[in-house]
C-alpha cells in the first residue's frame, strides 16, 4: 500500500461496514483512512450531466459517515445518497494530520468550485450555482510542512481523483 489511499464506496451502511471490516484486518499503521485524520468527498452525478459534492474531513471516517447517514434527509451526504448516483471517496495518507486534512479539504473545495460541471442540487437548470453542499470555509494559517501538503501531496491526490472521475478536470 502506498502512502496515499483513496477508497470509493457507495454511500450506505453496508458498503461502509464492508470497507471497515476489510481495512481493520490490515496492520494498524496501514489502516488509513480510518486510523488517521482523513478527507472525504461525496459526489453525485445527475441526469443533466451536472455533479454536486460535499467535502469533509474527520479523525474518525467510519463514525462520521454513520453520523451523516443517521442525520436525516437534510444532511449533505443523505441528499447526495438520495440522488441514487452517489459515491463516497475516502482519502487517507500516512502523513496526514489535522492541519493537513483541513488544508486538503479547503483545496478540494476550491478546485471543485471551479469545475463548471458542479452545480447545485436545488436547481438543475442553473449551473452558475456552487456545486458544493459545504457551509463553511477552512482557510488554514501557516503550519509545519504546509508546502509539502500543497505542492506534493495535494497534486498527488488531485491527479488520482482526476484520473478516477471523468467529471473532474485538471
Polypeptide structure, described:
The protein is α+β, with helices and mostly antiparallel strands and 170 residues long. The chain is 36% helix and 18% strand. It contains five helices and four strands, in the order βαββααβαα. It has helices at residues 13-23, 61-70, 76-81, 98-113, 146-164, and strands at 4-10, 38-45, 51-58, 86-93. The chain has a four-stranded antiparallel sheet, with helices on both faces. Helix 1 packs antiparallel against helix 2 and helix 4 (98-113) crosses helix 5. The longest helix is centred in the C-terminal third of the chain and has 19 residues, at 146-164. The protein is globular. Mean pLDDT is 84; it is low at 124-128.
Provide the β-strand percentage band. Answer: 15-25%
Which ranges are low-confidence, i.e. pLDDT below 50, for 5 or more consecutive residues?
124-128
Strand order of the largest sheet: 1-4-2-3
Taken in chain order, the helices and strands follow as EHEEHHEHH
Largest sheet: 4 strands, antiparallel
The number of helical runs is 5
Q: Report how far the terminal alpha carbons are from each other.
A: 25 Å
What percentage of residues falls in helices of 4 or more residues? 25-40%
- For this structure, the quaternary state is single chain
Shape descriptor: globular
Summarize the structure.
With 170 residues, the protein is α+β, with helices and mostly antiparallel strands. Helices cover 36% and strands 18% of the residues.
